[in-house]
């Protein structure tokens, strides 16, 4: 399981791009994790699924609301990672008004989630293999803080907790 001091696993995530530019085409674009974290401080939060109650009502809105505060604390980007496809993440991002604040990063096949060891088995609930709820601060691809929720909880992976950690590091 991923821990503080570890490098993020190699691999890629996808993001649905709304407007063509900066070498990205409209639609799903694949990004190499090591390349897009190099030289940056990234706040990453992961959750079980797009459009799910706690994720939509609390987790994503907290990061959207505090995006400017994260930037002021030296965080270059915020990412929301979920085991959903890029189309779903793009639609959810539009609904949550994340543009310019939070990158909605799709882990459609759960490859990144499995590589971190932070999986959540929701097969019995009809949702398949998903991600645990967590947040982490990553500098130059290395995990500096990691906040993993207990099953069914939303207490330590929230935006305010990660922002306080970003200010302290």
Q: Topology of this structure?
A:
Layout: E1 12-17, E2 27-32, H1 33-37, E3 41-47, H2 53-65, H3 67-72, E4 77-82, H4 86-96, E5 103-106, H5 111-116, E6 119-122, E7 128-131, E8 134-139, E9 142-148, H6 159-168
Parallel strand pairs: 3-4, 4-5
Antiparallel strand pairs: 1-2, 1-5, 3-8, 6-7, 8-9
Summary?
By secondary structure, the protein is of the alpha+beta class. Helix content is 30%, strand content 30%. It has a single domain, classed as Glutaredoxin.
Major sheet attributes: 7 strands, mixed
How far is the first residue's CA from the last residue's CA? Answer: 22 Å
The proportion of residues forming helix, as a percent range, comes to 25-40%
Based on the structure given, which CATH architecture is correct? 3-Layer(aba) Sandwich
Number of helices: 6
* CATH topology label: Glutaredoxin
Reading the helices and strands in chain order gives EEHEHHEHEHEEEEH
Mean pLDDT across every amino acid position:
94
The share of residues in extended strands comes to 25-35%
- Spans of at least 5 consecutive residues whose pLDDT stays below 50 are none
Q: Outline, from the CA principal axes? A: globular
Strands side by side in the biggest sheet: 2-1-5-4-3-8-9
CATH superfamily: Glutaredoxin
Number of domains: 1
Extended strand count: 9
How many whole angstroms does the radius of gyration measure?
Answer: 15 Å
């Amino acid at each position: 399981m991923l821990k503080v001091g570890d490098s993020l696993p190699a691999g890629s995530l996808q993001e649905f791009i709304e407007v063509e530019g900066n070498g990205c085409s409209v639609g799903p674009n694949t990004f190499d994790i090591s390349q897009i974290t190099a030289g940056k401080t990234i706040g990453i939060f992961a959750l079980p699924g797009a459009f799910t109650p706690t994720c939509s009502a609390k987790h994503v809105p907290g990061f959207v609301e505090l995006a400017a505060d994260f930037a002021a604390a030296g965080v270059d980007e915020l990412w929301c990672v979920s085991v959903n496809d890029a189309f779903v993440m793009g639609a959810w991002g539009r609904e949550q008004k994340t543009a310019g604040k939070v990158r909605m990063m799709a882990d459609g096949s759960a490859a990144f989630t499995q590589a971190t060891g932070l999986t959540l088995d929701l097969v019995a609930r009809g949702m398949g293999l998903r991600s645990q709820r967590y947040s982490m601060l990553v500098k130059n691809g290395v995990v500096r803080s990691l906040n993993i929720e207990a099953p069914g909880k939303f207490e330590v992976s929230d935006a305010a907790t990660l922002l306080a950690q970003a200010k302290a590091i």
